[in-house]
Fold this protein.
Amino acid sequence: MSGWNLTGRVPDTATEAAADDALSVSQAVELAANALDAIPQLVVLGEVTGFRGPNARSGHCYFQIKDDSCAIDCIIWRGSYAKRTFDLRDGMQVIFTGGFNLYKATGRMSFVARSFTLAGEGMLRQQVAALADKLRREGLMEASRKRHIPVFCSRVAVVTSLSGAVIDDVKRTLRRRNPLVEIICVGSKVQGEGAPAELIEGLARAAAIEPAPDCILLVRGGGSFEDLMTFNDEQLARAVAACPVPVVTGIGHEPDNSICDMVSDRRCSTPTAAAESVAPAIGDLVDVLDARERRMAVAMSGAVRTRASDLSALGERAARAMRARLERSALALRAAADRPCLADPAWMVERRRSDLEQTAERMASAVERSHRRFADAFEPLPARLAGSVSGLAPKHRELELAASRLQREGRALLAIRQADVARAAASLDALSPLKVLARGYSIAYGADGVATSAARFEPGDTMRVRFADGSVTAQVERTELAEPKPDPSRA
């Protein structure tokens, strides 16, 4: 029984040996991951497809890059994508720099891109997008800046290559739609080196034509993105925006959109569409003119009827106003003719004389009444004045008595003050230095004022001596100092 297992089958020795040497899934994945880590950093060129990102939660981007025969999963971490200079989109040809990585949980291999740049046409598209954003910020693409193009242009200048089929299509379209349009062709290169400069010169020559064209058609046939790069030139775009004549562009086909299309006054999908936009079909113009003629005739008839009715009403109003004015003038004339001053001019003088006489009589009466009134008021005044004067005698006596008392009191007060002043004057006179000088004394003055000692002077000094009746200036010949008296308290 020892040679049988629980299943009842004979054990295979070779299988058991192989199982002992087998790797686990984790070991196999780890081995593959180590092998991928050993691959150096790669630079891969491919087309972006299935782009998803940045992820709302993680910020990472997930997509595939492919070529004609193969595709691989690609990841760009959030930090790497934050350093981008452009946004990834499906269809872009991009150069990625990075390495392979194996997600161990599922064993799925991905290419982790650490940086990326545009390649080929993608780089050109990035440059065009940057230029478009720059000109947009400057306001060159604002609709308010773009000029109005006449519905019917009688003179059209076409700036394009004169050797291609485009100029023939434009001429054929203009002649078919309206043979009255005058076409002026200005030749220029539309592709290759020096094409932008020739187109700028062509625009300048077209704008300088006299008389000036109604608009300029800047057109070119279809081509690849690189072929149309001439019309993405910054200087050409600025020349289109600054052109004094409105510019209509028809460059390439419907999907194509260049910088010149963005700054032009009108963008059309093709050169033929540009020609059609500036030259309405002559049949349409005839229909429009007929319709406008009919509307004008109806409007003119209505206006004439309205004006005739208004004129009739105004005539009636003018007649009524004239009659009313004449009637008022006639009444005023009759009233003026009936006035006495016109019928009898002397009547006015007599009337004024009568008024003057009445006024003189009223004035004389008023003067007489005023004289009597003032005389009546003046008669009692002397008696009243005499009565008023008789009452002043007692007051006069009282005033004399008060004056007498005031004089006595004043003299008594003055006597007391005079005695005090006399005593003070006698005291001052007794103390006056002049009295001392009068008794034979004098005062000596040195350079510093009054000198109280002979030591103040030296021989040759000048001194002034004050007497009672004047002063003397003298020069010191010598000084003699008295002997000091002994102090009794020291003896």
In short: Residues 282-337 form the longest helix (56 residues).
